[in-house]
Amino acid sequence: MRDADPSTNEREFLLAALKDGARIDGRKFYDFRTLRLTFGAEYGAVEVQLGNTRVLAKVSCEVIRPYTDKPTEGFLMFNTELSPMASAAFEVGRQTDEEVLVSRLIEKAMRRSRALDTEGLCIVAGEKVWSIRVDIHFLDHDGNLVDAACIAAITALLHFRRPDVTVVGEDVTIHTLEQRNPVPLSIHHIPICTTFAFFNNGERMIVDPTFLEEQVKEGDMTVTLNVHKEVCALSKAGGIPMEIDQILQCTKIAVVKVAEITAQIQAALEADAKKR
Amino acid sequence: MSRLDRTRTSAHQLRPFFSSQNLLNRADGSAQFDFGESSVMCSVIGPAEVKLRDEKLDKATLEVVVRPLVGLPGIKDKAREQAIRETLEPLVLSGLHPRTGIQIVVQTMKDDGSILATAFNATILALLDAGIPLKSILGAVTCIVDSETNQILLDPTTQELANAKSTHTFVFDNKSSITSSPENKDQEEAVEVATLYSDSTGLFSEEEYFECAQICYKAVQAVHGFIRTAVQKKLEKEQQQIHS
Amino acid sequence: MATPAFTFTPSTFQKLHPAEFFRRFTTEGVRPDGRLLDAFRPTTVHHGVISTANGSAMVRIGGTTVVCGVKAEVAEPKLDAPDQGYLVPNVELSPMCSSKFRPGPPSEQAQAVSEAINRVLKESKVLDLKDLCIEEGKAVWVLYVDAVCVAYDGNIFDAALAAIMAALKNVRIRKPTYQEGTIKVSGGSTATDENSFTLNLARTPLSATFAIFDTTLTILADPNVTEETISDGQISIALDETGQLCGVTKIGASSCSQSVMRDCVQSAKKRTQQLRDIMNQQ
Questions:
Q1: Is some CB atom of chain A closer than 8 A to the CB atom of C79?
Q2: What's this protein's family per the entry (chain B) (predicted)?
């Protein structure tokens, strides 16, 4: 089922409001929606709510044989299959353009930026390595799936604990959760995506668009940064051309946002750790 | 008589229920149902547009999509899709919405055993939330026969399932049960249970199977009651919101 | 009294009102193909039909024919079970057997049947997987069990399970020798009891499937494809040779009472015994 285009009234009202300096849900232009993080009872399960957008991320691990040309590297895999639960527009078995974009952005932001140390996943070189799998389930689509998925993925990876392993020569013992406390993954940095949507012939930039704003936008851009002000990924795929100054301004705004969100994630992880 | 699941003392005790309805904004109906630490969320969209090749002239077409918590969907999920769809076909009054489609998506949120039963319960709550007309509601519960003690344990956790000699999932609707009058005064009034869906695997005897059915039937009454209360509470809250 | 305006030949009536056409038969206690309601179709089992496979069998139940081949390969064991081999069963329903199956990825029905058979094999502990170990942690046997339907006329579950069990009984694997990291399998001369081994099956589950026809609340044994299309649900019962149940499934249709299930179990006991006799004869 294709999504119905927004009505003329909705479109005109949203654009007029933006011209006048307001967003439909009352936010300021550079405000994220309320971010809520809920951890599951198990390590590595986190549900993210960004306004009405809901995403669930689950991390699991398995011991497998590494590639012969990379004997000391573990694996990090993301699964971002969109199900019809998030939106009737997503069909089973057929990838929409949006789905392809979301999965590629996650790959770029998380894997290519080397947020997770894959060398640290090695158990016995050439024989056994950890394969970490992150399953991202989209439950409700109200815009900005990329940012929500990214926050969910990195928080889940930070929350996850893998079983402890001892290697004595050739013998590998994987300790159960009862025998030894599980061990966190070694995460170098925390990449956070910030998505911007452009309106009014490129004059107006807003952060964290809702679904309606996404349908009416002229263009968009996603900047992935970490707290150390390093750009992990920048994606502006098509849409209205923007000036370089505007792009730079977006990154400056993103720096502030990323700092806020990272602080919130770390606070939530600490609060959860105290509970256990 | 201690179970592997230390939170429960009795073999015939179910884990605490939890449910929540109308959670999602995009779906017409949604619900989450928990059996203890097993949690499944279900969304329902319909009656809505259906692909021409799936269109039925006199009925609504039911489509079920089951998504596991970890990994890509496999044959186990496909088998669950078939089970849920075939069980719901006689319950949904699909004749009222011909040439439309009702799409049901089942997502496992937390897995601690008895996922199929949890999924069935979440699905019926989501259908109620979406306002799809139904002939009756259903309730599902799983039980196992423990390999060491030969006891019948209700609503097993993942740990308990690993020790099972046989696993049984039953689904009952809230309409059919035939009470047969006792032949002599000594016999109790036997309730002849009528199953909507039954799936048993492992090694078990005929007596064990029918005993499991009886025990699960009694347990499902609690599930039916819970579903009724949950929907009642939701409607009361909605009424309050309208009038306040 | 005037004759009715429309008269139909039986085949036209069947096309226009399939359920009603069927009901006319079942109320008399028979089915359009002449069988009684509880009769199973003639069944044959042939062993060793594929000479290049480690084990094979072909089962015909009425018009449904399933050929099953078992291939044994050496592989690394799974890390959490280093002394166990594994079975990979698969049931294939392709356009070859019936036009109702489309080419492409396996249909939901094929996947559901594969999963059902997989669970029977695994949870009824048909084979001790430790028997398939060659060298712990290094090499084990993997048995690829492929059941291909070559003609589809309903009741794929019974035919596929019977074919798989007959093929597993037929399996003969050359004994390997493990030397310094390589597996050597003696080839050449015919397999004898000395240079090969057969599988030690703990039990042989076989099944009986029934269709549920809601309109008249009738249970039909061994549905053919037309009966399957118009029926509302199915009951499958799997038993082993000692009479223990290995699987009970009731799916679709409205609620079935326990007495109906009991009757099905009794009928299944007789049928599986009959199937076993057929399998052991040939």
A1: yes
A2: Belongs to the RNase PH family.
Domain containing A101 equals 28-275
* Sign of torsion over alpha carbons C20, C21, C23, C24: positive
C126 to each of B203, C41, C129, C150, how far by Cα in Å? 10, 26, 9, 26
**Sign, Cα dihedral of C128, C117, B77, C236:** negative
CATH code: domain of residue A171: 3.30.230.70
The Cα–Cα gap between C214 and B64 comes to: 23
Q: What is the ipTM of this complex?
A: 0.90
Task: Label the pairing between strands B17-21 and B29-35.
Answer: antiparallel
Which one-letter DSSP state was computed for residue A120? G
Answer whether residue A175 is part of any domain: yes
CATH of domain B17-243: 3.30.230.70
CB C44 within 8 A of CB C108: no
Are B67 and A137 an interchain contact pair (Cβ–Cβ within 8 Å)?
yes
Q: What is the pTM of this model?
A: 0.92
Q: Any alpha helices (H) in C83-216, and if so which ranges?
A: 108-123, 156-170
C76 touches chain A (CB under 8 A): yes
Residues with Cβ within 8 Å of residue C192, at least 6 apart in sequence: none
Question: What tokens does C198 get?
Answer: 């057969």
What would the DSSP string read from start to end of B62-115?
EEEEEE-SSSS--HHHHHHHHHHHHHHTTTB-GGGSTT-EEEEEEEEEE-SS-H
Chain A residues touching B24 at Cβ < 8 A = 54, 85, 139-140
Q: Structurally, how many domains does chain A consist of? A: 1
> In chain A, positions 38-97, which contact chain C (CB-CB < 8 Å)?
63-65
Q: Which residues contact C257 (CB under 8 A, 6 or more apart)?
A: B176, B178, B192, B193, B194
List chain B domain ranges.
Answer: 17-243
Domains detected in chain C: 36-279 (3.30.230.70)
* Alpha carbons B150 and C260: distance in angstroms, whole number: 26
Question: Contacts of residue A63 in chain C, CB cutoff 8 Å?
Answer: 79
C178: number of Cβ within 10 Å: 13
Give me the helix-helix angle, B115-130 and B206-243, nearest 10°.
30
d(CA B127, CA B44): 6
Quote the crossing angle between the two packed helices C258-281 and B206-243, to the nearest 10°. 140
Residue A2 maps to a domain = no
**pLDDT tens per residue, range B197-235:** 999 999 999 999 999 999 999 999 999 999 999 999 999
- Cα(A98)–Cα(C160) distance, rounded to whole angstroms? 42
Query: Would residue A264 count as lying in a domain?
Result: yes
Report whether B171 contacts B165 (CB < 8 A). no
**A223 domain residue, yes or no:** yes
What residue has token string 């798989």?
A: C164
